[in-house]
Write a structure and sequence with these properties.
This protein is 52% helix and 12% strand. The chain has helices at residues 12-16, 44-50, 55-70, 72-76, 87-91, 115-126, 161-174, 187-196, 219-232, 238-246, 249-259, 273-280, 282-297, 302-321, 327-336, 339-343, 347-352, 358-366, 369-383, 396-417, and strands spanning 20-28, 33-41, 80-85, 103-107, 130-136, 151-155, 178-182, 200-202. It has an 8-stranded mixed barrel with strand order 1-2-3-4-5-6-7-8, surrounded by 4 helices.
């Protein structure tokens, strides 16, 4: 009997100190990641227990956790960290206790450009900080802030296409910094923002590929799906996998380079697939073959692979905490949850060509069953939808811990993938 995934109860002492930290990628035009905005929000229980969670506390908690508790390198690796500032931090009433480094300070949209605020921004710039204007709207009273900004973030969701085009045209006349489009949710919006001249992009558009219903799947993607089908089959024999790999010189080369990467810590002396099987076991070998295959199919961003790895690992960790059956399939559901974005095909069409257990299908298509609920929880955390961060009896603070562990783990795996 597996444990039902349900909403946990949070006692007042836990709620008193609970808040959540996450991150959202910010991309360049070529879809390389330039940085991550650090997201920090209280859970619903915190709001109900303590009343409104103010911005000063939120910024302070982000700084404390990112720099002291977690480590900024874990959260953003070698990229920029975008951190929101309230007026008190901008004016210097509360000191910023870290050096500029790779930090971008976001001036919140509700901060008026008073002389004290402008002096504060100048002081921060003199310390070497990069300044961004958050959720910028094309309002006359905010224009005095523009000359002091390095990045302007525009929320495209709140503007019509004509308003957006007119506003960007006006900014481009006297602003020499970078323009960042926020809340870009589709490929079409990304393409439009590129045409308008935006430099950076933030949103979940990478997870929403342009899919034409009924389009024929290219032969190379069909072959990829057939290989994935064999890899997830519990009845597959090692000899069959070995034959598949040996018949594909590129796959053989990639897999051996990956297994010899520092991520596996096997001494870098694995020279055959058979040797890899002996050291790793069939189950582990199948898992990493899937990752190598999918990484080879994604022509978009390394962040998409990172996200798939993070989801997969976090789903498996939560399944282990709940002592659920078939824990390896939770890794699979996280990994496959981004198949449509990787292969640029509708997920229903993909799953028709990869016969999966019914529970896994329901999880991927409808977020149903224990797998579906855990996947929903993981994606909710990833997207900062804290009200949906629910996973059985696992405390929310532990979910946060597993998320951070999964980020670190995914970063380690990417080191190996970058070598193939």
């Amino acid at each position: 009997m597996t444990e039902k995934v349900s909403k946990p109860k949070l006692n007042q002492e836990d709620a008193k100190n609970l808040a959540l930290i996450g991150r959202q990628a910010i991309y360049k035009r070529d879809l390389d990641v330039v940085g991550y905005e650090l997201l920090y929000r209280p859970s619903p229980e915190v709001n109900s227990a303590n009343g409104e969670f103010d911005g000063i506390t939120a910024t302070g908690e982000v700084i404390l956790n990112a720099f002291l508790e977690i480590g900024i390198e874990t959260l953003v690796n070698d990229k920029f960290a975008f951190i929101n500032l309230t007026q008190e931090y901008v004016e210097g009433v509360i000191a910023i206790p870290f050096d500029s480094g790779s930090v971008v300070l976001e001036i919140l949209e509700n901060i008026d450009p008073t002389p004290i605020v402008i002096q504060g921004i100048e002081r921060l710039r003199s310390r070497g900080f990069t300044i961004a204007l958050d959720d910028f709207v094309f309002d006359e009273h905010l224009m005095p802030l523009v000359p002091f900004a390095d990045i302007i973030k525009v929320d495209i969701m709140g503007l019509s296409d004509d308003e957006l085009e007119a506003g960007i045209e006006r900014l481009q006349q006297n602003f020499e910094g970078k323009l960042l489009a926020e809340k870009v949710e589709t490929q079409a919006e990304f393409d439009m923002c590129k045409d308008l001249g935006f430099d950076y992009f933030q949103g979940y558009f990478l997870e929403k590929p342009v899919v034409v219903k009924g389009q024929k799947m290219p032969a190379n993607k069909v072959a990829t799906l057939q290989l994935l089908q064999r890899l997830q089959d519990t009845e597959v024999e090692f000899e069959e996998l070995e034959a598949i790999i040996k018949n594909d010189a590129s796959l053989s080369f990639k897999l051996l380079r990956y297994i010899n990467s520092p991520s596996f810590n096997l001494g870098g002396n694995i020279s055959s697939i058979k040797q890899a099987l002996i050291l790793l076991g069939l189950g582990t070998l199948k898992r990493w073959m899937m990752i190598v295959v999918l990484a080879g199919e994604s022509g978009k961003s390394k962040d998409l692979i990172s996200k798939a790895l993070c989801r997969a690992h976090m789903c498996e960790l939560l399944a282990k905490l709940l002592k659920l059956k078939n824990q390896d399939q939770y890794f699979l559901v996280g990994l496959f949850s981004i198949l449509d974005a990787m292969l640029e095909q509708d997920i229903t069409d993909i799953l028709k060509q990869i016969p999966l257990p019914e529970e896994l299908n329901l999880a991927l298509l409808e977020e149903k069953g224990n797998m579906g609920k855990i996947l929903k929880c993981v994606i909710a955390y990833e997207h900062g939808k804290w009200e949906d961060v629910r996973c059985g009896k696992v405390p929310v603070k532990i979910i946060e811990k597993k998320y951070l562990e999964s980020i670190a783990w995914a970063n380690e795996q990417l080191l190996g993938l970058e070598q193939i």
